[in-house]
Amino acid sequence: MISIRKYTAKDKKTLFVLIEELQDYLVQIDPMKRLRRLPGYEENYIDDLLKKIKKSGGVIFIAEVENIPLGFVAGVLNKQSKDELLGCVPTKSGRVLELIVSEKNRGQNVGTLLMNKIEEYFQQQNCSIIQVEVFEPNNLAHNFYKKLGYDGRVIDMIKKIVTADNS
Question: How far apart are CA 112 and CA 96, in angstroms?
C-alpha cells in the first residue's frame, strides 16, 4: 500500500536520484537540445529546492511502499508583490515546484496521490489557486495535470537564433 509522508533529511539522496531521472527524461524529449545534466546537477538543484521550501513555508511529500521511495512532490507558498497586485486580484497561491514519480512506478496512481496531498496542504494554507509549470514538450505531464483539473494559463515561447558563438 502506498503511503505519503513529509520529507526528512534522510530522504535527500532519494531526491537526488529522482531529480536525476527527471532531468535525464527532459533532456531526451527536448526538441531544441538545450537541456543537459552535468555532474553535480542534482545536488545543486536539490539544495536550491530545499532553500526555497524553507524560505516560503513550503513542503515536500514522499510517496513510498514499505520504505521504498516511489516519488515526491514539492511546493511553496507564493506571496504577491505590490507590483503584481497592481495588475492582479489579491490571491494566495501555492506553486508545485516538482512532481516526480520514478518511471517504474508510473501508472500506479502515485502522482495523483502526491498531488492530492499537496493540494490538501495548500488548501489548509488558505490558497485559492495552485500553479504548476510544465515543460512544453512533456505531453505526459500536460495530460496528467489536465486530468486533475489544471488549465493552461501562460506559455513561455523560445526561438533559437544563430550568433557568432553558435553558428
Answer: 13
- 53-61 long-range contacts (CB < 8 A, ≥24 apart) are 53/97, 57/125, 58/97, 59/6, 59/7, 59/118, 59/121, 60/6, 60/7, 60/11, 60/15, 61/4, 61/5, 61/6, 61/7, 61/114, 61/117, 61/118, 61/121
pLDDT tens per residue across span 73-92: 999 999 888 898 899 998 89
Closest CA to 72 of 58, 55, 87, 57: 58
CB 118 within 8 A of CB 132: no
pTM of this structure? 0.91
CB burial class (10 A; 0-12, 13-18, 19+) of residue 151?
A: exposed
Query: pLDDT (tens digit, 9 = 90+) per residue, 19-50?
Result: 999 999 999 999 999 999 999 999 999 999 99
